[in-house]
Amino acid sequence: MAIATLNPATGEVEMTFEPHGPQEIENRLARAQSAVFALRGTSFADRAGWMRAAADLLDDDNERIATIMTREMGKPIGAARAEAAKCAKGMRFYADHAEEFLRDEVFGDPGSLGASRAFSRYEPLGIVLAVMPWNYPLWQVIRFAAPALMAGNVGVLKHASNVPQSALYLDTLFARGGFPAGSFSTLLIGSGEVRAVLEDPRVKAVTLTGSEPAGRSVASIAGAQVKKSVLELGGSDPFIVMPSADLSAAVATAVTARTINNGQSCISAKRFIVHTDVYDRFAELFTAAMGALRVGDPLREETQVGPLATAAGRDELAQLVDDALTGGATALTGGAVPEGVGWYYPPTVISGVTASMRLHREEAFGPVATLYRVDDVDSAIALANVTDFGLSSSVWTTDQREKARFVSEIEAGAVFLNGMTISYPELPFGGIKNSGFGRELAAEGIREFCNLKTVWEA
Fold first, then answer.
1. Which domains are present in the chain?
2. In this protein, which residues make up the domain named Aldehyde dehydrogenase (predicted)?
């Protein structure tokens, strides 16, 4: 893929960029390695001051970077502004809490170990490579970069090739805030150059958010090099509605949960599993609300759903829906590629999906919801767990016994009760099964790329 801004609302190429060649890659890695040594002499207070300054710059740049994100990947402009604001919040969160999260852990009874003292200490690893996707051009990067830099690590970013302006904005943000030169840098390279960068001995670890095949590839390279990796891959999250649920709240949240970011989010609810007692009413309300969403130019304030980010992504989504409809499923609303320019796909609700259909097994990365009817809790849990993914889940019930069962038996990295899955800086985030391993955010996220060093003294 060319490194270019290709506006998904128009299909037009707006800007192109020359990839970094071998010498520029080496220059940037050399500066990153120098920054490793520079950061070792800084304190948490130093880094916190620089991080807060960078967050202030991001707030100042909100409208400019929001417009860039919208033009590069099509998210509604209001959502782009909110993403930039969330990034600044996440940066300040780690500025406030990094020292607390990485404080030495002192063993309370060193005498039992034959020691005068014993403790463990978190130390940075060095250069961490981040391979990031286009769907949240800032947030996916910041939720790695903020904890990594606050821990004293150095970040090197390989961003998706269709969001180069976002990547280059991040290239300078932390240095503008005061971090030593080279502490965070962007490599404008294609996926074919990732292996060489990851195999470079100066790079100590890697984090990837993206597709399952990309995750398998990067993890295999890292494994061969005995380097730490964290993966956040796809999801096919269930949204379960039981008879005791507040149906109006569940429907309103379901619409947002399926169409946020134009439906292009790993943690979007995708499979709507509804108890038979409330299925018909939920389907009626949900379908009407999905069909009423305003689709259009993402730079217009009133737009609720913009285009998909790439032509290939729109084609793949359309193929999944067409396969289901050919196999006997029903489109309650949407279900067809509209005429006109841009890579738009309408909010769509599909019922009658069976196990033989691709839409049942594969992740729909766009505003397409599948509806399932179940008779009881057992059936809901079984259907929720049938997927190979295990990122998150949303469950709607006021029954305490049902809540306990869902929390305990759903196979996922998170269960949200009577609410929509959202990534918060304060909460650990990640999945199981084919959704990846490791955790981002909270204390767990900053500790992933640290060496936990044990110290014992006689």
1. 4-233+435-457 (3.40.605.10), 237-424 (3.40.309.10)
2. 3-455
